[in-house]
Automatic annotation (TrEMBL):
Superkingdom of the organism of origin: Bacteria
The name this protein goes by in its record: Uncharacterized protein
């Protein structure tokens, strides 16, 4: 059964513990590129730096490229009901929450692919 992470730090720790952190980075890069949002996190990026850079990228997309942001959520397949539950009054907090939802969905893809191959 897929272990649902409570927050970004637990998610990244689980990915490292299961030796799937590099696969997670590759999946993020792949899906962002599918959405024509060129992002290329190096495989050597630390979990904390990944968290910060992803948050900044989402923040900029919400602010300046909203249509592309929605397309990205669609391509990654972030559940719409989870997005609708977020409070959008503070853009910084919203971007952080969306970054977690993106990481959670990407982690889910990597975890399932690894456990059911």
């Amino acid at each position: 059964m897929f272990p649902i992470p409570e927050n970004t730090d637990f998610l990244l720790a689980d990915a490292e513990k299961e030796n799937l952190y590099l696969s997670l980075i590759e999946q993020i890069n792949k899906d962002f590129n599918l959405a024509n949002e060129g992002i290329d996190f190096p495989l050597s990026i630390s979990p904390n730096e990944l968290k910060i850079q992803l948050h900044e990228k989402i923040y900029r997309m919400i602010q300046y490229k909203f249509a592309e942001y929605l397309n990205l959520l669609y391509i990654i397949d972030v559940p719409e009901n989870e997005i609708k539950q977020l409070d959008g009054s503070d853009l910084v907090i919203l971007a952080e929450q969306v970054a977690f939802l993106i990481l959670k969905r990407e982690w889910q893809k990597v975890w399932f692919r690894n456990h059911y191959k």
